[in-house]
Structures are given as C-alpha cells and as structure tokens.
C-alpha cells in the first residue's frame, strides 16, 4: 500500500509471529482487505459493487463445481442430466437455479460497477491498468457465460452457439476455417459441447486470477472516490476493516436478498422458455436471442443492414467487437484532468444520455427485429460510437469543470449529506454547509 | 490516436446512417405486409392456479384430476418422459395405487425377451419413466399426419405464459373467422390443420383433444366440463414441469426471512461502526485549517479580535 499512514501488520502472539516469519499470508490479507488498507472515507454505495462482483464470482464457482458433479456433457445426455439435477438430485433445483440466476446477478452488479467507473472517472490516471484489467475480466465473463448457456443443450443453447460461432465466418478467407476449427466440426456438436464444458470450467479460475491482478493494481494508488480528488492525508481515509467490511457486509445481505427472491420465486424470469426444449439442429427457433446481458451487443450486430464496401455481417461483427475494445482506449479518449462526473456539467449530461442509450440498445437487442426496432438500434448504435470516440474527446477538451473541493475531508466536513457535490454548488439540504459553518 | 479512433467512430456512424436511410426507404417503397397472424393471434387467457404466486402450493386434488385427463386423453399421443410413476406419490397417490397405475399403463416399457433377446415389452414399474406412446419419431409422425406431438414434461416451462398457454390452447379451438379468410385468402387453414388463435401461427396440427363435457369421469365427482378439464390438465403439467415448486416456495420464504434479519443486523452493526468514524470527523473538524480560517474570517467580520 502506498499511503505512509497505512498501519503495518503486527502479529498479536507468538504463533502469528511464527507464521508471519515464514509465510506472511495474514500480512497480505491484512494489507489487502483488513485494517492495513486505507480507503477514502467518502465512498458512496456505488463503491460496493466490486465486492459484490467478487461475491457472485464465488457463488458461481461453488454452485458450478457442484453442478459439474452431476452434469453430463454429451449431446444425448446433457439436457436430461440437467433435468435430473432439477428433479431427482437433493436440492439440485436450488443449486441449478442459483447458478442460472447467479450469472445474471454477476452481470447486473458488474454493469453497475462499470458505469460507476465511467461516471467517476475511475479509468483515469493512475488507474488505467485497473480499468483495463477490469475489461479483461468482463470479456472473460462474456465468454464464460456464453459457453455456460450452451451446456444445457436446449434450443437456445444450440442456436446461440450456432449464431455466435457464426460471427467468425463473417471474416473473409480465414473466417470459415476458423469457425470449423473452434467448433471441432461444421456445426455445434459433441466436440463443441465437450470443449465448451472444459473451458467453462477453466475460465472462472482465470477470472479469479485476473481479479487478483485487478485488486493488486487498485491497491497501488488506492480507491477512487466520489469527488475524484486524490487522498491527501490520513484524515481522508478510513481503514478498510472494520468500516468498509461493515458497509459491504450489510449491503451484500440486501443484494443477496434480492437475488434469493428472484432465485426462489421467479427463477425463469430472466431466461428464455425455448431453452426448455431439447436442442434440435433441424428446427430453428422463431426468434433467436441471447441472454439479456448480451442484448446491447446483439442490437449493434443487427444494426448493420447494408453491404457498404464490406458485407453487412462483417460490419456488424467488427462493430460489436469494437464496441468493447474501444473501452480500452477510454483513459486516453477522455482528456479532462477532473475525474468525477459530479464536477463536469457537460460530461454528466452525456453520461446519462449514454446510460439511456445502452438501455435502449438492450431493449432493441431483446426485441424481435421489426423495422422500428432495427431503426432504433441503428440510431442508438451510432450514438454509442460517437459518444466514446467523438463526443467524449471534444467535451473533455472544451468543458470548464466546476471548482473541486480542497480535499476529501473538506468535502466530508462541509457537507456530510452532499459528499459527492462541489462545495457551495448545491443547496439541496438546509443550504450550503460551507457557508453555514462560517456564520 | 484520438483522430484514428474518432475516424473509426465516424465510419461506423456513417454506415449505420446509410443502413438507417436504406431501411426507411425500403419501409416506404415496400411496406412490410400485414399478416393474418399479426391481426388474429390472441395472447393467452388469464388462468389462476393454486401454484401461482410466491406462496403457491399444488392442489393435489386438482393435480390428480389433471393426471386423469393426461392419462385418458393426452397420453395417447404425448409422452412425459422426464416424469416417473413413483413421482405420483408426491401428488397424493399411495404406493399401491402407483404400482397399479404403472402396471395398467397402456404403453409398455421397451425391453428384451430374456430367452431370445428379441425386442419385447414389459409392464411398467413405479421406478420407470412414463413410456412414450410411439416407439420413435418416425412412428409418431406417421401416426400424426407428419406432425410430431411434443413431450409434455416441460411444456409449461418451454412456452411463454406456461399453463395459461396450454389452457388457452385447449379451449381455443374454433371455426376460422370468415373475416380472416376474406382479408387474407392465402391464410385459409390448410387441410389437416385446425384453427386456434392461441397457437403462434394460428393453425395447429393437433385436433381438438378435449371436445365435450364429461369426456373424462372424475373420481372425485367434480363436473368435467371442457373448461375444468383444460384447467386441471394445465395444473398437472405445471407440476410435471416443476415438481419441486412447493418446496422451492417454502424454502425461499425461510431464506428470505433469514437474509432479512441478517441484513438488518448487518445494517445496525454498520451504523454502530460508522458512528465512531463520523464522530471522529466532527471532533477533528474544528482543527481543520479550512475551518479555522473560516472561524477567524467570521470573527473578523463581526469585529472580534484574538
């Protein structure tokens, strides 16, 4: 940890001292998530979602390992083995529904985590690598989720695999051989199912490993905060434990409650009924849609309908891949030295426009491709690219930010309730505290 | 690099604009044709079952009636290959009854003749799954005008609106509206299909299975109207697709209560821990140089010195 006032680990008794001399694991934990990690004191609840993502990764790994004890990765047996888990295995229905909805919740909390980073400028120096490692985790999550959805070998599993691996065939020359090589055949079949299962089991551990790098990189500069102002001295921070463990703890309970309500009372709400039909290579479903967390990208893919120099399909695939890749360049696209969106009035408006735009893309991607839906996804996709690649660089160069607080504790001291707001700029609750203290 | 990325963004936006203009032009030059399905398809009717809602449980009486409808009507063509006879014990049949139901089942379980090794059949046992009415897909299609009757084990989970859909479909058979044929002459129900506005393409291969009141004689004396039988069999199919539903609801309630308490306790602990942090802020607050400066400014304003 880079702060000089971070408390060093002090072994309490001879046993912990003995351990510390040989394997300083308790020291590592203490410095990472214990009293030895100073965290800005003004974090709001949006900062809880990183821990929540870790929680859902853990839930997915545990439920997934148990499911793998019963799951049978064969094209003839996969569907029935899942139903066997649902019907005959003790508490199998619970583990399977927990895993199914756990994936959705993993994405929900991760999306909130990503948008928090976008709003508060957490991708800016010195946290560029934290952001980029996070994007690597996100890409790995998408691959894992896609392959996991194929495993029950229902209709959407099969046709989803068909469509997604079909992306590769959009590339000229190498595309089709690559697709066949990836699938191990001309269409999704036993070879594809077995390798998807193998990779679906492997990738979560890769995610866990990259998560360690993500947290390591985060702990060098320390956490960002709602003001975006750098930590200046000890008064700006609180030790992670007990303050943020307590805050994360109760909030995790709340989110788990929502997760439990969905898992127990509406377990199939986020899924698609067609995946309860066994895979049939001869019957294409009326509407092939991916899981909800891929809808925005599916909308971008379908938005390209004209062969302009390149075939429309290739445009769609390129745009879809690029829509994520461009996020790696974000730290250099946004030139503003101010991190937090709270002090950037113009940026803030465009940020909320982006949120609305992504929700609109999600809606379009999940709907049947009628002319109106396609038109909406074309407009929304165009905005998505313009936002990051054109608007953001221009806004960040021209915008005049609001005055920043001198320090985090200044913002906390002069307005506990308005910690994220600039001093003297908002008078929502009982007038500006900055002037009130002067009287 | 920003210029290159900006250029890429502009190119994507340009191709999207061309796509949009092209789409709008196509929409006006060749407007999409209005179809009979768009106009005449009906969303499922409302169906209230005991298993609905977060506290829903199965009504065993109704499930048994529904099972009777399945075994006397549906089972002629539709399998239930994920459900075992022994599972019927969960809807109120006792062991002896289940044994008898299995032994009396019309379709035999495929097996081999122990002496000759030739294909044979045997009576079903409680541990067997419900045998399929046809030996294979070809036989099923041959017997059904080339349509394949789907297995019903998961039907209420594999269709939007589940039980409401099966109920609406079973009670939705009707004569094709004259208005439809007049407006869309090509959409006339073909020979061998049956008009049903609740079926996605309006014409279903399955002939109306439940046609008259009293088609099944209920053992519990309930009047077997077409509507009642359709409801009961839909309720039974909800159970067949999700036999653990009642257990799920019950444990969901306890888990939710547990998490609610844990969250409240966690919140109180959080309040307790942070009270200290917030006090510390106020105590040291007066020593904050910015605060001191403000105090001295305020004092100076009021003419107080020292």
List keywords for this structure.
heterodimer, A: 439 residues, 2 domains, 17 helices, 1% strand, globular, disordered C terminus, B: 306 residues, mainly alpha, Cytochrome Bc1 Complex, Chain D, domain 2, two-stranded antiparallel sheet
CATH fold description of the largest domain in chain A: Cytochrome Bc1 Complex, Chain C
> In percent terms, what proportion of residues of chain A is strand?
under 5%
Overall average pLDDT of chain B: 91
For the CA atoms, what is the radius of gyration of chain A?
24 Å
| Chain oligomer state | heterodimer
* Residues in helices of chain A, as a percent range: 55-70%
Number of strands of chain A: 2
- Overall geometry of chain B: extended
CATH level 4 superfamily of the largest domain in chain B: Cytochrome c-like domain
What does this structure look like?
The complex is a heterodimer of chains A (439) and B (306). Chain A has helices at 14-22, 25-33, 49-68, 78-87, 92-119, 128-150, 155-166, 175-183, 190-219, 240-265, 295-303, 312-325, 330-333, 345-366, 371-398, 408-413, 433-438, and strands at 38-40, 237-239. Chain A is an all-alpha fold. The longest helix of chain A has 30 residues, at 190-219. The two termini of chain A are 40 Å apart. The model of chain A is unreliable at 415-439 (pLDDT under 50). With 306 residues, chain B is mainly alpha-helical. Chain B has 2 domains: 37-83 and 129-243, Cytochrome Bc1 Complex, Chain D, domain 2, CATH 1.10.760.10; 248-301. Helices cover 49% and strands 4% of the residues of chain B. Chain B has 10 helices and 4 strands; from the N terminus they run ααααββαααββααα. In chain B, the strands form 2 sheets. A two-stranded antiparallel ribbon of chain B has the order 1-2. A two-stranded antiparallel sheet of chain B has the order 3-4. In chain B, β1 and β2 form a beta hairpin. In chain B, α3 (60-72) crosses α8 (226-241) and α6 packs antiparallel against α8 (226-241). The two termini of chain B are 59 Å apart.
């Amino acid at each position: 940890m880079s702060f000089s006032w971070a408390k060093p680990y002090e072994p309490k008794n001879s046993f912990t001292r003995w351990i510390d001399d040989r394997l300083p694991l308790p020291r590592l934990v203490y410095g990472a998530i214990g009293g030895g990690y100073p965290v800005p004191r003004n974090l709001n609840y949006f900062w809880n979602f990183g821990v929540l993502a870790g929680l859902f990764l853990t839930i997915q790994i545990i439920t997934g390992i148990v499911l793998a004890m019963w799951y049978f990765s064969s094209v003839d047996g996969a569907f029935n083995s899942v139903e066997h888990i649902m019907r005959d295995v003790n508490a199998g229905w619970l583990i399977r529904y927990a895993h199914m909805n756990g994936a959705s919740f993993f994405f929900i909390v991760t999306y909130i985590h990503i948008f928090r980073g976008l709003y508060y400028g957490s991708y800016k120096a010195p946290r560029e690598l934290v952001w980029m490692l996070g994007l690597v985790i996100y890409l790995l999550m998408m691959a894992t989720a896609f392959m996991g959805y194929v495993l029950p070998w229902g209709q959407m599993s099969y046709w989803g695999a068909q469509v997604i691996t079909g992306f590769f065939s959009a590339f000229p020359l190498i595309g089709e051989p690559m697709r066949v090589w990836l699938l191990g055949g001309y269409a999704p079949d036993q070879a594809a199912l077995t390798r998807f299962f193998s990779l679906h089991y492997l990738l979560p551990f890769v995610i866990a490993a990259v998560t360690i790098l993500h947290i390591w990189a985060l702990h060098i500069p320390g956490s960002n905060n709602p003001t975006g102002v750098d930590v200046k001295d000890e008064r700006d921070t609180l030790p992670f434990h007990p303050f943020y463990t307590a805050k994360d703890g109760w909030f995790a309970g709340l989110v788990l409650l929502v997760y439990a309500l969905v898992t127990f009372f509406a377990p199939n709400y986020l899924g698609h009924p067609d995946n309860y039909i066994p895979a049939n290579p001869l019957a294409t479903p009326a509407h092939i849609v991916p899981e909800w967390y891929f809808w925005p990208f599916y909308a971008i893919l379908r938005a390209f309908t004209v062969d302009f120099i390149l075939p429309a399909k290739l445009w769609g695939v390129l745009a879809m891949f690029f829509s994520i890749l461009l996020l790696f360049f974000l730290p250099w696209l946004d030139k503003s030295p101010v991190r937090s969106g709270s002090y950037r009035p113009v940026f803030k408006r465009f940020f909320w426009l982006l949120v609305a735009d992504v929700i609109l893309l999600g809606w379009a991607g999940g709907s049947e491709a009628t002319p109106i839906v396609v038109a909406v996804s074309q407009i929304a996709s165009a905005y998505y690219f313009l936002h990051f690649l054109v608007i953001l660089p221009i806004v960040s160069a021209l915008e005049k930010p609001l005055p920043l607080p001198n320090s985090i504790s200044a913002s906390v001291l002069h307005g506990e309730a308005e910690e994220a707001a600039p001093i003297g700029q908002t008078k929502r609750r009982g007038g500006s505290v900055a002037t009130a203290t002067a009287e | 690099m920003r210029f290159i990325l900006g250029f890429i963004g502009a190119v994507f936006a340009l191709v999207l604009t061309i796509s949009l203009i092209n789409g709008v032009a196509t929409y006006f030059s060749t407007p999409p044709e209005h179809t009979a399905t768009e106009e005449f398809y009906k969303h499922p009717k409302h169906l209230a079952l005991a298993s609905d809602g977060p506290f829903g449980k199965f009504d065993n009486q109704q499930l048994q009636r529904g099972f009777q409808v399945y075994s006397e009507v549906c089972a002629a063509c539709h399998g239930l290959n994920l459900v075992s006879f022994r599972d019927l014990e969960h809807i109120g049949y006792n062991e002896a009854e289940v044994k008898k139901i299995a032994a009396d089942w019309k379709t035999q379980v495929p097996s081999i003749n122990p002496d000759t090794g030739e294909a044979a059949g045997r009576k079903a046992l409680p541990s067997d799954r419900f045998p399929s009415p046809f030996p294979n897909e070809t036989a099923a299609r041959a017997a059904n005008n080339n349509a394949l009757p789907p297995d019903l084990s998961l039907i209420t989970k594999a269709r939007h609106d589940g039980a409401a859909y099966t109920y609406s479909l079973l009670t939705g058979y009707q004569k094709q509206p004259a208005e439809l044929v007049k407006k869309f002459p090509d959409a006339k129900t073909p020979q061998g299909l049956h008009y049903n506005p609740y079926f996605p393409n309006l014409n279903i291969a399955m002939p109306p299975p439940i046609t008259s009141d009293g088609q099944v004689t209920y053992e519990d004396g309930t009047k077997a109207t077409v509507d009642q039988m359709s409801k009961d069999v839909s309720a039974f199919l909800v159970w067949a697709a999700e036999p653990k539903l009642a257990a799920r609801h019950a444990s969901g309630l306890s888990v939710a209560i547990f998490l609610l308490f844990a969250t409240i306790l966690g919140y109180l602990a959080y309040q307790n821990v942070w009270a200290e942090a917030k006090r510390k802020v106020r105590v040291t607050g007066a020593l904050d140089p910015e605060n001191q400066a403000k105090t001295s400014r305020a004092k100076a304003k009021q003419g107080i010195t020292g």
